[in-house]
Amino acid sequence: MLCSVVIYAQSRTGQNQDSSKSKQLEEVIVIGQRNRTDKTAKPLATLDNYIEKSSAINMIKRGAYAWEPYLNGMASERSVITIDGMRIYAACTDKMDPITSYVEVTNLSKANIHSGSSGSTAGSTIAGTLDLVRKKGSFGERSMNGMAFTGFETNNTQKVVGAALNYSLPRFFADVDFSFRDADNYRAGGSKEILHSQYTKYNASATIGYKLNEHQQLEASLIYDRAIDVGYPALPMDVSLAKALIGSVSYTRHHISRQIKQWQTKFYYNDVTHIMDDSKRPVVPIRMDMPGWTKTAGFYSMLEGGTGKHNWKTNVSGHYNKSLAEMTMFSNTAGEKDMFMLTWPGINTYYGDFFGEDIYSLSKHWSAIVSAGLAIHKNLVSNQFGLESLRIFYPGMSKSKTRLLKRLSAMFEFERNNWSYNLGVAYGERAPSVSEGYGFYLFNSFDRFDYIGNPDMRNEKSASVNMSISYQNTGFSAKLTSSYFHIMNYILGRPKTGLNVMTIGATGVKVYEQLNYAGILNTSLDMSYQIIDGFSWAGQIGYRRGRGENGLLLPLIQPLSYSSAFTFSAKSFSADVSLSGSSRYNKYNPEFGESELPAYTIFNLSMANRFKFGTKIFILKTGVENIFDKNYTTFADWNRIPRMGRNVFVNVVWKF
Fold it and tell me: What is the SS3 assignment for 544?
């Protein structure tokens, strides 16, 4: 019912072709699937834990909650993250609310990952796309089923509780889901308490569908997510409220003609509120409030079809977003005025996009995938006070800026017997993010600099090449993947002399500018082996390297990292022991606040049993994470905050 597996999905490429030939690869993390025995080490883990199983993604941690996905070693500005294809803009200037924080594992089915510009139906990107696909019911005979779940963890006394209900009719279905998490401060190895790492989170989700006829249906969905009292030990401020309301309606029609298989159109709207404050910090230089808001409305309309050896799709999409954030500093001196500024000065973004892709079966063993996209991106500063603030640094700054963003990719695949070879090239562009283009004195606690945006920057561009070799038989599989991104006009904050800091204790001021180029290399090897019946092994090893011009080391780049797990299963019982670790982190850049880190290895153990009572299923899973209570920190931990120490967990799932 709640299962995590990394697989490589394969889609048919020719209407009349053997489905075992000509396949397009994408990485898929299966998060939840009904009617499956649980096989994940920790069913009720947070979504962040599931996503970081991918060799393509690192999760940057600023606390115990809401980690930021780095796809192919690049910050979230360089990727497009969607929920069911919907564009959502985070509302926090400090990246404390990534899009992944507004859903739960209990209402998701999978996460689709595309690297680079290949397959990027969601929009222009450099690093790639991550689409979180929610679970939904299906039409059928009258039935009702559901599940209830609960969990407890000893390290931070985390409590998890929730339930889901699914109802089906021949022409109607409805899914509802609710989950609640509450955690206190966690303890690092050696029982050291990490202050301000608590959080409380509520998530509710609902989807309904109605079948108009055999080939047409309507769907409506709603997500409400609310987190309160969220601590961030790596940052100088916490979060009193992070709230998102995400809704959509869609129309789908199947079998329109022999050439057009499906047409889907969706309209959506989301409203995100994020409020940072330091009211629970005992000692601060000055009290601050930093609320942020984003509102996004958009649509997409996708056609899919096939003719002969061609299998194609087109997508037309567009969205409007408004991002606004402010900061108030409260004076400690009686009678002195408080200070107010707009850190995001009401940025309106208008975006329109067209994407097309064709998968062509060249022969029995060869296939080619070609895609192209073109987007129009416009930013408008809607707040006059914010515009005048930015004109202090850019006197001739225009109120609006329009950009044309292009992307193109091609991939060739050869398959024969148990082997598959892929080689692809891609080109992509992106516009500066709201912070990079229009941010006003945004404090980075890692390098301790205030950051100022630069609206005059050019589009960031990337030319990439990727390859993979995979082998699979009934008992063994292996996949070697490698990619290289050559990024032109690479956006990066660099120190600027002659500017005064705004934040007390800041080292200086950085202004976003562009390097001529930067390069990022990614490589990974994934393997699995069925040793004997009921006993299997899986392993993963990965490495990244990132450098800019003049040998500049890029920040937060993963060193050599590895994981290995042995699993035993017999009838309704399963157990697994795993380890994960990293080599010494010695290729770092102090300019970005980084420091050297030692190598580490941690060990985990879990066991599960599945009980069946008629039509009802009861799953009990327990385990120990970081068995030896090691105190360690990884390259992905902001300000070198240590990870959680020994943690015993119990998960209970009841399906009815």
Answer: strand
Rounded to whole angstroms, the Cα distance separating 434 from 442 reads 12
CA distance linking residue 66 with residue 95, whole number of Å: 9
> Which pair of structure tokens corresponds to residue 379?
């930013």
Please tell me the pTM assigned to this model.
0.93
pLDDT tens sequence across 615-647: 899 999 999 999 999 999 999 999 999 999 999
Residues facing 273 on adjacent strands: 243, 293
Report residue 186 as tokens: 């966690």
Residues whose CB is less than 8 angstroms from the CB of residue 157 and which lie 6 or more positions away in sequence, other chains included = 183, 184
Using the 8-state DSSP alphabet, how is residue 117 labeled? Answer: T
C-alpha distances out from residue 458 to 167, 317, 346, 462, 514, Å = 51, 23, 21, 13, 8
Which pLDDT score is estimated for 359? 94
pLDDT class for 225, splitting at 50, 70, 90? very high
Query: In angstroms, rounded to a whole number, what is the distance separating the alpha carbons of residues 287 and 279?
Result: 7
CA distance 363 to 99: 41
- State the sign of the Cα–Cα–Cα–Cα dihedral 431, 436, 437, 438: positive
Nearest-angstrom CA–CA distance, 527 and 410: 27
Beta bridge partners of 227: 201, 242
Tokens representing residue 599 in the block:
């190598």
- Of 486, 349, 454, 360, give the one whose Cα is nearest residue 405: 349
Sequence-ordered alpha helix ranges (H) in 347-455: 384-390, 434-438
Measuring CA to CA, which residue among 623, 644, 634 is closest to residue 577?
Answer: 623
- Identify any residues that bridge with 353 across adjacent strands, giving them in sequence order: 317, 375
Residue of 358, 88, 79, 353 lying closest to 223 (CA atoms) = 88
CA distance from start to end of the chain? 11
- CA-to-CA separations, 271 to 156, 292, 381, 416, 514, in angstroms, rounded: 31, 11, 19, 49, 32
pLDDT digits (tens, 9 = 90+) for 553-587: 999 999 999 999 999 999 899 999 999 999 999 99
Cβ–Cβ < 8 Å for 553, 593: no
Instruction: Report which of 64, 399, 102 is spatially closest to residue 233, judged by C-alpha positions.
Output: 64
Q: How many helices (H) and strands (E) does the chain have?
A: 3, 34
Token pair 């859903």 in the structure block, residue:
103
Dihedral, CA of residue 96, residue 378, residue 118 and residue 31, to nearest 10: 30
Element (H, E) at 87: strand 86-87
The answer to whether 223 and 83 are in contact (CB under 8 A) is yes
* Alpha carbons 79 and 120: distance in angstroms, whole number: 10
What tokens does 36 get? 């499956």
Round to whole Å and give the CA distance between 146 and 139: 16
| Backbone angle region of 196, left / alpha / beta, with phi > 0 → left and psi within -120 to 50 → alpha | left
Domains and their CATH numbers in the chain: 2-161+170-283+292-655 (2.40.170.20)
Nearest C-alpha neighbor of 60 from the set 645, 541, 635:
635
Let me know how long the chain is. 656
CB-neighbour burial class of residue 443 (10 A; exposed 0-12, middle 13-18, buried 19+): buried
Closest CA to 159 of 167, 150, 168: 150
